[in-house]
């Protein structure tokens, strides 16, 4: 039997998308009540038929723009857009919900959902099946997700979403810190020592208690030493040796000093 190659798999996937993309548009009957339209949208959402759910939610909002159903429909349509791989529309919908209904009791969920959208944003279809180092990805969406989760935890500490948000904050801080280390190491290889030291210092100052901190100290110590800023290099080494006495980078820095 022939093996399915990656290009062929992609072609099949695209073909399937085009086939299923011709789905007939749904339309709520003119006599349907707001409750009926919402129930149809919710039923579609529950079976992961996100396109149908979105269409019903949009019709509900157009026909009944005021009231609790309109508010709930807007928030649930944001979730449907998120699950339908349309993060930009999901974020725009969440922003509109938060702007129009700032006192809604589900604002904490809106913040959490926006954080989730940003958390998973920019993950291509291949990366869902072939993972890569998260720290190599553009950090912009991760920074936005971190801000959303931190806002949620700060404003709504008792929210049922805060515990999960707190765990994601830890992950995001580690990921963003490692991204800065990657950039700092790049600058070291390019002999841009000032830029490398600044990136490493940013990790120490903004991502305390992450696994990247000792590596940041090592980079700082090396960069300062190369730039003949011996006092600064020694200050960093004392911090490194005091807080991470077993880190292999200590011997590496000391060895490079002796070799000069």
Structural class: mainly alpha
Helix content estimate: over 70%
Beta-strand content bin: under 5%
Main beta sheet, described? none
Q: Count of DSSP helices?
A: 12
The end-to-end span amounts to: 62 Å
Q: What form results from the Cα inertia axes?
A: elongated
H/E element order:
HHHHHHHHHHHH
What is the count of β-strands? 0
- The low-confidence runs, each spanning 5 or more residues with pLDDT under 50, are 1-20, 124-131
Rg estimate, integer Å? 25 Å
| Mean residue pLDDT | 87
Give the helix/strand layout.
Blueprint: H1 6-20, H2 34-46, H3 50-63, H4 68-83, H5 87-100, H6 107-120, H7 140-155, H8 162-189, H9 193-206, H10 213-226, H11 230-243, H12 248-259
Describe the structure.
- The chain has about 260 residues and is mostly helical.
- The protein contains twelve helices and no strands.
- Helices cover about 70% and strands about 0% of the residues.
- Helix 9 (about 195-205) runs antiparallel to helix 10 (about 215-225).
- The longest helix is centred in the last third of the chain and has 28 residues, at about 160-190.
Brief summary:
By secondary structure, this protein is mostly helical. 71% of the residues lie in helices and 0% in strands.
Keywords for this structure?
disordered N terminus; 260 residues; 12 helices; mainly alpha; 71% helix
């Amino acid at each position: 039997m022939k093996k399915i190659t990656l290009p062929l798999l992609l072609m099949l996937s695209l073909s399937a998308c085009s086939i299923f993309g011709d789905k007939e548009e749904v339309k709520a009957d003119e006599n349907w009540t707001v409750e009926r339209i919402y129930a149809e949208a919710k039923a579609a959402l529950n079976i992961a038929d996100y396109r149908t759910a979105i269409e019903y939610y949009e019709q509900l909002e157009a026909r009944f723009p005021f009231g609790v159903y309109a508010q709930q429909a807007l928030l649930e349509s944001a979730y449907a857009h998120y699950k339908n791989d349309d993060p930009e529309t999901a974020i725009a919908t969440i922003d509109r919900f938060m702007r129009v209904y700032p006192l809604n009791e589900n604002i904490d969920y809106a913040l959490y959902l926006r954080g989730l959208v940003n958390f998973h944003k920019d993950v291509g279809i291949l990366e869902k099946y072939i993972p890569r180092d998260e720290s190599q990805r553009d950090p912009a969406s991760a920074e936005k997700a971190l801000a959303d989760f931190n806002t949620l935890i700060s404003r709504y500490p008792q929210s049922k979403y805060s515990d999960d948000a707190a765990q994601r904050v830890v992950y995001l801080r580690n990921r963003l810190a490692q991204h800065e280390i990657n950039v700092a190491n790049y600058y070291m290889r390019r002999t841009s020592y000032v830029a490398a030291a600044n990136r490493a210092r940013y990790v120490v100052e903004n991502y305390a208690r992450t696994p990247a901190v000792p590596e940041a100290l090592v980079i700082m110590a090396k960069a300062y030493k190369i730039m003949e800023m011996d006092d600064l290099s020694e200050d960093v080494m004392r911090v490194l040796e005091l807080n991470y006495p077993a880190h292999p980078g200590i011997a590496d820095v000391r060895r490079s000093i002796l070799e000069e």
